[in-house]
Amino acid sequence: MSDTWDMVFDDERLASPASVSEGHMTSSEETLCRAEGIGHMLEMVQQAAKGKLVLPFGAAATASVFYHRFYVEQSFSDYPSQFGAVAALLLALKITQTQKCSTNARSILVHSFAVLSDGGAAPTTASSDFQAALAALQRTEKAILASMGGHLCNETAYDCLLFIFPSYPILFKRCCQIIATTLSSTLCLKYPAQLYAAGVVKYALSIHPQEIEADAAAQFTAQEWFAPLNVGVPPENAGYITPARIAEVADGIQYHIQCLGEMSHGDCHTSSMR
Questions:
Q1: If exposure means fewest CB atoms within 10 Å of the residue's CB, which of 82, 96, 127, 183 is most exposed?
Q2: What are phi and psi of 74, to 5 degrees?
Q3: What is the DSSP letter of 16?
């Protein structure tokens, strides 16, 4: 679990990812690249449910952490977002080792092209375009693995929610929707998974108060309800999860979602969505 805490970045580092600090693109362009990659990843997961591939949402949640961390250190000009998203998902599938998941690079890439083509013509596996894409995918996967070093933590806010929500399917569903909506942000790098999960719960309770199970609402607004999430926290971070920090995360989630709604109108500066 300590890896979760080792993967946290401060605001200064998150404000200057490689693509921006090296002058390849503006902060707004970099944020949009991140969102495009995560959007493709989520579309792959959604479309896989209609076919033979097994791509669980939990793997996408893990992959998003790998993806965002990678692009803090590496530029989109060197590793295009499509390959970064697919490679991160492939790596997450291998690490989580979920039963029946596909971890074959060819199968995942074929699915990626099918999603991108949206029913149109996609390159065949024997084509030079596909072979070049496969080489780029494998190169990117190796680069992500190298950039992660020993921090291949597969615990995410989603995993924490699985731990604390055994009996509240409605609240769990709402929280999963919030996590899916915020996967394009770097909140997963700014906050440890346990704290992020607590912030998701608080935000879900604030926007869906009438839908949530009554006993769940009572439990998760009680004093120290978040105590189970502090179990296993490294000793040096003991007591880190507090109501004030949970509120900070919930505010960050709200702001990110608000910006997503305003982006289409050009009202929100995308660099502030981090």
A1: 127
A2: -120, 155
A3: S
What pLDDT score does 271 carry? 44
* Long-range contacts at 21-26 (CB < 8 A, ≥ 24 apart): 22/75, 22/77, 24/75, 24/76, 24/77, 25/76, 25/77, 26/271
Whether residue 157 contacts residue 190, with contact meaning beta carbons closer than 8 Å, is answered with no
Contacts of 28-32 with C-beta under 8 Å, sequence gap 24+, read 28/269, 28/270, 28/271, 30/71, 30/76, 30/271, 31/270, 31/271, 31/273, 31/274, 32/270
CA distance 92 to 143: 14
CA nearest neighbour of 95 among 143, 147, 153, 140: 153
Give residue 147's identity as a one-letter amino acid code: S
Residue 232 per-residue DSSP state: T
Q: Find the DSSP H helices in 79-148.
A: 81-96, 105-117, 128-148
Identify the segments of the chain with pLDDT beneath 50.
Answer: 1-2, 265, 268-273
**What's the CA gap between 226 and 125, in Å, rounded?**
49
Query: Which ranges constitute the DSSP H helices of 149-242?
Result: 157-164, 169-182, 187-190, 193-207, 214-219
**Cα dist. 26→36, 84, 231 in Å?**
15, 19, 40
Cβ-contact 84, 144 below 8 angstroms = yes
* Segment (H or E) for 33: helix 27-48
Amino acid at 52: K
What's the CA gap between 207 and 202, in Å, rounded?
9
